[in-house]
Amino acid sequence: MIESNQLVNKATSQLSYTLQIADNALIMGHRLSEWCGHGPILEQDIALTNIALDHLGQARSLYQYAAEQFNALPAAEKEKFFVSPALQSIIATGKAMDEDDMAYLRDGWDFRNVLLVEQPNKDWAYTVVRSLCYDAFNFFFYTALQKSNDETLAAIAEKSLKEVTYHLRWSSEWAIRLGDGTEESNKRIKEAVTDRWQYTGELYTMNATDKAMQEAGIGTNLDDIKAKWQERINAVMSEAGLDIPSTGWMQHGGKEGRHTEHLGYILAELQFMQRAYPNMEW
Amino acid sequence: MTVHSFEEHFEEKLDKDIAIEPRDWMPDTYRKTLIRQISQHAHSEIVGMLPEGNWITRAPSLRRKAVLLAKVQDEAGHGLYLYSAAETLGVSRDELYDQLHSGKAKYSSIFNYPTLTWADMGAIGWLVDGAAIMNQVPLCRTSYGPYARAMVRVCKEESFHQRQGFEIMLTLSNGTEVQKKMAQDALNRWWWPSIMMFGPPDAESPNTEMSVRWKIKRFTNDELRQKFIDVTVEQTKILGLEVPDKDLKWNEERGHYDFGAIDWAEFWNVVKGNGPCNKERLETRKKAWEEGEWVREAAAAYAEKRKKKAGEQQAA
């Protein structure tokens, strides 16, 4: 009995872990997609949309996997896992979950993305800073995740890493360009770094799921990633002529389902169709 | 060569269907007509990103979201090829943007209509891109080389867009009652603006005759409109939807559909700026441009610094 409980615990932790990675990808992709048609330079509009598409593609692979993991849970666990009434009603019918159920029918408290990715685009400088901080994390995270015991996650990591390598190059180049561009761009990116820095600590803070998955050889050690992340960010910031803010208070909560006010509005838009017209094929 | 012989040489190329290239002599009016047409087309792609962009954050499934995002991105790409083609005629992209922002240059009026439901993503792909393809396929053989080559790429992607638009409509029309209603509502709103996309009737089209002679245009507005209606009405039957035209009837003798009177007063009003979204669309483009100014300046300043540094390193 103890053994089977442990197996169930592992399965639910594994599902939480997949969802946590997927949610980051979806919300980041969603934010970047808001730029489509509004970019400052046509070529950059195209580049940013490409990146948004990469994140969305990663989110899809991960949600498909999460749905598969969910569908394999024992019935009692399924009922406990999500609070969303929309999902509860699907569970009651016994229908299998799919990627869209995961993205469109969970509530804010079910989302485990870090607070950083849900922050508004605001302007090009804020967008670049958010991307740089996230891309640098993602790069080292996916690099490590390639070695995961979970073959599906390892394969997704390997495929995503090619994309993330480009994302990091893009955001690093833009951070340097803005930092070392004009007086105005320097001022704007400085402000963005100062304002967004408080959301970076959460990237490498290990929650219970991270710890359980690291122990199981599935997840990565975020302490290692923290060191690599800092080194990379320091290098880019120094080339951009920007100072790292003296580490103050860091915001947390996203990975526990406690978000900023922004996520609610993202979900209100993102989920509108599925909520207003439930149980239909699109 | 005298001016006369330059002109003869140009005409000879047109007659033999040899492409006119940027370095070739061309009549001033030919150049101007092309700049007007290509830039209008480029602007249409860029402004055309907005009505569909309106649904990217609300697409009903992850697959639809990805496809829509990729589609709107394709439009940005088309804008890019077309601005580049226009640039070969001696006008800069910034000048063309200025003309758009000041209201001097036009873009396709269809994009001044709002996208109110998800079904509009289907209707735009199916009808608007469908009409655009009818207009654009002949342009793959237009006389100006860079434009023709840009259009070959554009048309390939547009036919994919049209298929996916039709597929959205098909999914809706095979769906629930409310989905069918959504599809019919979108068809009702997009039908007439789509058939207006071919422009005013030939008798009132000021640019058609010269453009056909110069092989910039290969078919007249009315010819293309008829072809579009004939094809689209059949597709509407597959969808089980109703064309919002009570006068629509197959004419055995002509071998074409007869259709009702087009409200040209509406068309000219939308062209003149009185469409439901003219102001919004232009303001959105201007806002993106103005708010992007500091970004473009920063990129230019940084590139300049890098160049200077590289020069100094070389000197040392």
Please characterize this protein's 3D structure:
Chain A is mainly alpha-helical and 282 residues long. Chain A has a single domain, classed as Ferritin, core subunit, four-helix bundle (Ferritin, Up-down Bundle), CATH 1.20.1260. Chain A contains 13 helices and no strands. The longest helix of chain A is centred in the first third of the chain and has 32 residues. The radius of gyration of chain A is 19 Å and the shape is globular. Chain A starts with a helix and ends in a 6-residue tail after the last helix. The mean pLDDT of chain A is 96. With 316 residues, chain B is an all-alpha fold. Helices cover 67% and strands 2% of the residues of chain B. Chain B has a two-stranded antiparallel sheet with strand order 1-2. The radius of gyration of chain B is 22 Å and the shape is globular. The mean pLDDT of chain B is 94. Classes of the chains: A mainly alpha (282), B mainly alpha (316). The interface between A and B is large, with 49 and 47 residues.
Properties at a glance:
heterodimer; A: 282 residues; mainly alpha; Ferritin; 13 helices; 69% helix; globular; B: 316 residues; two-stranded antiparallel ribbon; 2 strands
